[in-house]
Amino acid sequence: MTENETSAPAGPPPAQLAPVGTAAEADATNAPPGGAGSGQRPPAEDRWSRATKHVEGAPEVHVHVPRPPRWYAVLWSSKKARIGIVMLAFFVFIAIFAPMLTPHDPNDSSFVPVQDPSGEHWLGTNTLGFDIYTQLLFGTRLSLAIGVLGGLGVTLIALLIGMVSGYAEGTWLDDGLSFLTNLALVVPVLPLMMVIVAYSETRGLGLLVFVVAITGWAGHARTKRAQIITLRSREFVTAARFGGDGMLRIVFREIMPNMTSLVVSGFIAASTAAIAAEAGLSFMGFGDPNTVSWGQMLFQANANGALVQGLWVWLLVPGVFLALITTSLSFVNFGVDLLSNAQLREEEN
Amino acid sequence: MRYYARKTGYFLLTLWAAVTLNFLIPRLQPGDPAEVMVRQLTGRDGEIDPTQIEAVRAMLGYADENVFVAYWKYLQQLAQGDLGVSFTYYPFTVGEVIGQALPWTLGLIGVTQILAFLLGTFLGTYAAWRRNSRFDSFISVGSTFLGNLQSFWIGMIILFVLAYELGWFPAVGGYGYTTPGWNWLFVADVLSHAFLPALTLMVTAPIGFILGMRNTMVQELGGDYIRLAQAAGLPDRKVALGYAARNALLPTVTSFALSLGVLMSGSILVEQLFDYPGMGRLMGEATSNRDFPLMQAILLTTITIVLTASFVVDLLYGVIDPRARKSR
Amino acid sequence: MRRRRARLRAAAALLTAGLGLSACATIGITDVPEAPEGMIDVLRLPAEATGAVQGLINYNWLSTNPITSTWLYEPLMIRDEFTCEAIGWLATGYEWESPTRLRIDLREGVQWTDGEDFTSEDVAFNFLMAKEYPAADRGGLWSDLFGAPAESVETPDEHTVIVTFTGSAVAKTDKILNEIKIVPEHVWADVGDPTQYVDTDPVSTGPFVHESYNGRQLTLERNESYWNAENVKVERLILEGQYDANSGALAMRNGALDLYTGDIPNPERSVSRSGVEYYYPPGGTTVLAMNMTRPVTGDLAFRQATAYAIDKEALALRASFGIMDVGSQTMLKLPIQQDQVPEQWRGEEFIPHDPATANQILDEAGYAMGEDGWRTAPDGSPIALVFSVQAGWMDYIAMADVVVRSLQAVGIDAKVVTTDPNAVDSMKKSGEYDMVLDSIGGGCQRSRDLGGRLTTSQIPDGDTILLNIARYDDPEVDQLVEDWSASTDPAQEAGYLSEIVDVYMEQMPYIALQYSPVRLIYREDNAVGWPSEDDPYPTNNMLRVITTLRPPEDAA
User: Fold this and answer.
1) Does B141 lie at the interface with A, CB-CB under 8 angstroms?
2) ipTM of the predicted structure?
3) CB within 8 Å: C393 and B35
4) In terms of Cα–Cα distance, which of B185, B177, B184, B244 is closest to B213?
């Protein structure tokens, strides 16, 4: 039921085909009705048919009913998504196996500063005495963490507020939540970030996730509200309402599963934005100097004059990695878009 | 009619709430403006000079105000159009300061956004029309990668290569040696100084428009009315531009209008890098200096523009797309 | 094929455009007129106005964003912070006839740029203006901080000014003479509140006059009738652009700037390979301040142990790339002020890095080492110190890091927490901190710079920032500083200094880490005579520097 929302509308199941073992997918309308009871028509021999009712003497007719492709097949069918998935897997691999890929410790600042790349330090050392290659590897962890957690935070808040608001459209609940959303959209981000960061005693992943979630949820909430408004008028929702289900149950048990691919696509977009936001925040100096992240590396590179000292590796490599990880997420999102928008699907092959 | 009345009501309510937030948030930050100001004058490593701090605090005149009294005074002044005197640029008024910075932002970012919009929609349309061709792949992949680059990072590289190494463009400022005025020399000077920041912004700006337009176009092109038009024998280009693109344009224009709010604050890092005297940089400076009047005024300007754009778009939707009105 | 040709053509066009674009960088630039023989044509400096918006013209040095505050209006005297001599500027000398009576002798023959004579009327006007408008009182003449408020100002003749105070005010000398810039009475008398006056056509006494300002670039021309004109060999100054560390370094390397005073990291590698010189003399001492009202940090033994435990050499290396020297615990700028060190401390000015001694002191004081490797306080409670440092200040973070590691090496559990710089200031005001970094001034008004750090009257109260952030409390020291502030006899200076140095060395209220620099980065292809290792003199006063610059050909 769920995956067929976007494909061709289901026609009446052919009456001739008995319920024995028939594939229930609606694409059976493509198959010419064959089988018993209609002896005038010659049984179709083409590979798309397979009758399942056993009739004496009648030739075996096979009705091959194509299943709609599973979500992972759709994802993999897109070349861009494939590349994205491979790249992402690469980063996840680095994040998990970072300690094994380098002999040094990312927090070890005892090395001789400002060394050029060498056998001992593959990317050299920075002005504070850290090994750049090791920091790069361990920075993957923080980027992925902020991507997942930040994206999750944004998506959860957006889902809660956006969906309830959209379902309750026209009522005071919707008005109130929409007002809150609009306010969150226009609140000044930079001073708010500075206030939050100034008042928190420690800086770290938790603070970053909080700041990202607080400042990023509003746009997504608006989108989800719009989506749910279109879905709200479908029959299955009316049926559930008459069945006595409460609002929250309808929203989260009936409607949301139909929006899965859209929610996932939103989550990936939010993750991308969270990683970029962390880079920006760290670059402005709001990051945590005790953790290793690519944004923090860029900040230190800039503050320590990497540009003028000609320390190109320090400056370029974290930036390139940031771009690659966000690009890989965007590519994966191309694939997820195919799941929600079937018209894009036909062309991706 | 109720639709419009309702929308106006919410607009005003949100405006008031935003104004109040703008008043509160700067004052929540720790830090005393006079101390911050004096520290800037003496330098970070300099010793604290309490006498100077006391004098500057007397000059700026914000101390010892009860928050509610200050809020009421602020609302009164706002109603009279008095935005106050900036701390950073004492004794100039906030209006004078913003008046100096606003044209630069409107120029640089307004132009960049419009160019990005035009370029993006054009490329997106063409890519959707020629979907799955090499051009389409190139555009999609290329713009995704470019759009994900951090603007401050690419700006640093552009600055170093084009300004310092090659010397093709000036590195700092909104203009250089010419005198402001409506003469060719000044205009050329401005353009040459704006080129690098604009280039930096243009690397990342069009991606949203390209992909958004492309996807919406593809969705439209799959619609039945398109098949009908093609079956009826209309030429391809007319179908694409005259029908599909026009429908796809509506959501894109919406996002363009809403992106105007990003104008002010989104470009702060790029402006700081190129020493460009725009509103983004002014906002960053006001925030670091705890310059309450200036911060409040800039935020007010930004919010008003965003809310107005959103409001106008909501109204226009009611006019342009009858379906939106009907859903009430 | 056609596509390829089109692409090639596009590439060629781009290249040509690019070559033509080199002209873009210098649109509208007009050649600077050549200066006469023996003069420097032009020096290019960064803009003094730090605001992002630069088109607002205001030369008033009292405002928060003047276009220039260095070159037009001048102070009465300049104190050489190395030798502690006072160099006469608009005044030729001063004397405290008694602790409550200050006489200033003004220079004769000085003229304002509009031809009027500079007289004691002008100076008196400046002092009285500060009384009527406290916002203009930058020297603290009428406030009661660091000394009694002034009572009256008299002008017995055209070149003498007498200021009487309600009590002893000797500690205010340097601020009055160095900080207050003199503006003309005949122009400013009718403007009302001077801090709100927008000065667009300045009448001044300084070495330069404003020639043009296009909203971004300020051109200053040499003042022919300057009282010290024969020593000013620079014909023109151009102030333009705000450069951060990276662009500043690049501009210096390219020759676009002649002078830069910001913080360029690792100048040895960043700039000095391209013919740019740098000179970072000590301006003050960066110190570790420990909260004396808290049990562990308030304990003398703990502070002494900390002083021995910190590896100051490594700290200076990490924080300033080895350019700045380790600071002396006497708080004097060594080796420049070596002869001012009191006799009893000669040879012991620096606390060496000696973890063994630190461990010994801690053991003897009762800080028992636990089994987990961490010490506990004498009363048995665990120690967990927090070092609050300003986020984004890279050198401070490096210093905090070294200090904490040094403490951990002797068994003290400490950690670095970075917070917003303003939050750190709040901590200093409220006293809610264990350890922070601070900077002790190296000025010559030592009763204030060194003494003020230890007196109870300078303990911050939560709203205002004052000097004694460590909350040192000793009535004897209070009395010492009070006497010192009232003393007008230079011969007693050495005695008081010796006593206060005793306090710093024995009580260690603040632990010296490294010297804080007053940076000067300069080029020698347009001018020579800059302060340097070979020719050391303070870099903090540009008026003085400009009078020693000469064209390179003239250098002997």
Assistant:
1) yes
2) 0.82
3) no
4) B244
- Residue C213 and residue C335 in one domain: no
Residue of C nearest to B87 (CA): C64
Please report the pLDDT score of residue A94 as a whole number: 92
**Among chain B residues, CA nearest to A179:** B14
Same domain? C356 vs C451: yes
Asked if B232 reaches chain A (Cβ–Cβ under 8 Å), the answer is no
For B182-234, give the DSSP string: SSHHHHHHHHHHHHHHHHHHHHHSHHHHHHHHHHHHHHHHTSHHHHHHHHTT-
Please indicate whether, in this complex, the C-beta atoms of B90 and C240 are within 8 angstroms of each other.
no
- Decide: C234 and C40 in contact? Cβ < 8 Å: yes
> Chain C contacts of A302, Cβ < 8 Å?
246
**What is the mean pLDDT of the segment spanning C490-501?**
90
- C309 vs C31: CA distance, rounded Å: 59
Q: Which domains does chain B have, with CATH numbers?
A: 110-290 (1.10.3720)
* Chain-centroid distance, C-alpha A159: 14
In a domain, C263, yes or no: yes
**Length of chain C, please?**
556
CATH code, domain carrying C307: 3.10.105.10
Same domain, C292 and C398: yes
Tell me which amino acid residue C325 is. D
Name residues 24-63 of chain B within 8 A of A (Cβ): 25-26, 28-31
User: What token pair was written down for C329?
Assistant: 């615990």
CATH code at position C138: 3.90.76.10
Q: How many domains does chain C have?
A: 3
Which chains share 3+ C-beta pairs under 8 angstroms with B?
A: A, C
CB contact under 8 A, A347 and B131: yes
Shortest CA distance from A111: residue in chain C: C318
Local confidence pLDDT in tens for the 328 residues of chain B: 677 787 788 888 888 888 888 888 888 877 888 888 888 877 777 778 888 888 888 888 776 677 888 888 888 888 888 888 899 898 899 999 998 888 888 888 878 888 888 888 888 888 887 777 888 888 888 888 888 888 888 988 888 888 877 878 887 777 777 777 778 888 888 888 888 888 888 888 888 788 878 877 777 777 777 788 878 888 877 777 777 777 777 777 777 766 766 655 557 788 888 888 888 888 888 888 888 889 888 888 877 777 777 777 777 766 666 555 555 4
Report the gap between the CA of C318 and the closest CA in chain A (Å).
7
By the 8 A CB rule, do C160 and C105 touch? yes
- Pick from B216, B230, B202, B250: which is nearest to B125 by CA? B216
- CATH number of the domain enclosing C539: 3.40.190.10
Dig out the tokens for A237 from the structure.
């929702």
Count Cβ atoms below 10 Å from residue C388 Cβ, excluding itself.
20
Q: Are C212 and C266 within one domain?
A: yes
Residue with tokens 């230190």, as numbered in its chain: A300
Residue C14 included in any domain: yes
Residue given tokens 């949820």 in the structure block: A217
